[in-house]
Amino acid sequence: MKKILALAAWAALTASVCSAQMLINGAGASFPQPLYTKWFSAYAQVDRSVRFNYQGIGSGGGQKQILAETVDFGASDGPMSDENLAKAPRPLWHIPTVAGAVVICYNLPGQPKLKLEGGTIARIFLGKITKWNDAAITAQNPGMELPDREILVVHRSDGSGTSYIFTDYLSAVDQEWAEKVGKNTAVKWPVGLGGKGNAGVTGQIQQSPGAIGYVELAYAKQNHLPYAAVKNAAGHYVEPSIASVTAALASATVHDDFRFSMVNAPGAEAYPIAGATWLLVYGQQKNPAKGQKLVEFLQWAFTKGETMAAALDYAPLPADLQARVLKQVQAIKY
Prior knowledge:
Elements: H1 2-20, E1 22-28, H2 33-43, E2 50-55, H3 59-68, E3 73-76, H4 82-85, E4 92-106, E5 115-116, H5 118-125, H6 135-140, E6 152-156, H7 161-173, H8 175-180, E7 193-195, H9 197-207, E8 211-216, H10 217-222, E9 229-231, E10 237-238, H11 242-250, E11 274-282, H12 288-301, E12 315-316, H13 319-330
Parallel strand pairs: 1-2, 1-3, 5-9, 6-7, 6-8
Antiparallel strand pairs: 3-11, 4-8, 4-11, 4-12, 9-10
């Protein structure tokens, strides 16, 4: 009987704590979701009065939901345009959290370690290079026997920050791509099959011999997909890694509103297809109580949380940028 009473008391206490918790909702980019999930889990031990619920629905969805104020914060791998920011009911701020790499994955016999330069990647995704043994590819990979096989391009079918980073890079290195396709979270792809989310693109590549696509580094590693070293602005073929993304981030020009691009960054060790990811937060919070909890969480994230990034294949912000971001967080009103 005593045991039953104790269990009943514990259940009542748990229910009471849960009912007293404040729920803060967020939605958007799937790329940083593993890190944000880690952060929210760890922060639950710091402040038991608040609970975070995050849905990785893609950057396009995150931008739409924060504009509609159906969530307390949004998230995006691509910065919002001036046009979209003008739709916000109040000033909407970009808070960069970490940076990461978009990698070129493929499905070829023997999983060769390819080298690719930007113009070649652009022509593949434009549908102008259609065979794996094309001279443009073999010239960059001397001594490697590539098959006489059709290339199957795989891209994202949903609004995606990963697509934004990839098309931002292609627009920076190839004039024809910039003029015909451009950069955005969703574009009119000249060729290929669409997959939903990083997981969908990964699955299409795994199932399709001869396929090529782009995903976040963590997805390639987790699914044991080979990925290419890409020629950077300094003329070096660089593999994606935390170090090479950090090198790209270090050379990026970060504007006062924290919207910036870091693709094709200068520097011998910089990986060229890299980008930041942002939380989207209103500078004037509508709900004072939630606003205070959100600011307290962000202050924790940019001090304690950043130390968790590298273990999950994200590049943390450099110290000087962290200090600037913390100053912006402290300016949020509630």
